[in-house]
What does this fold into?
Amino acid sequence: MISSRPYQYIKGWVEFYKLKFKVTKDVLIPRPESELLVDEVIRFAKHHDIVVDIGTGSGNIAISLACNLRGCNVKIIATDISEKALQVARQNAKFHGVKIKFIKSDLLKNIKEKIDIIVANLPYIPSERIPYLDSSVKDFEPHVALDGGPDGFNLYRKLFKQMQKRKFKVFIGEIDYSHGELALHEAQKYFPEAQIEVKKDLTHKQRILVIRMEVHSK
It folds into this structure.
């Protein structure tokens, strides 16, 4: 019988944003579409001071940002609720020689610093779809990093509630391909004064939610 264990776990590493990252069963395997998050953050980050990566996992997004923003005086903070995931992220940061502040936190809960940009790739797959995922995903990747609740948007709603109590300028998050209208509706509900848009990935699927508060902060 051929094992469906992902080859990335077998090799122990994966390439993301032209960088090499260690991966274990405690972290989600970085996907190519998540590179769009890095692209979007870089567009804004050069003009801001602090970026917070929520649900960092292997640290692929935070570390890719740190490597590509060297010399820009941008501080990067990365959080995860899983200490095992943070251990992997710290190892990856050390490997790439970048300085990132890692914090164990339930989303923004333990972040004391001011925030300019929030980037998040939270679990967004609806619970009922989990059993139908490819066995290489559902049987090996951590469900805590996949399951987004009944409609897949539970953790983003929770994060939005926390964000309402904080000042921030830009939010950039990866969403499920089916969440375009839902993401716009929820974002408008929590941030009615913001400029909000959903961007498509290279396969023309709705993938990136952008919330800009800074256009109204002048």
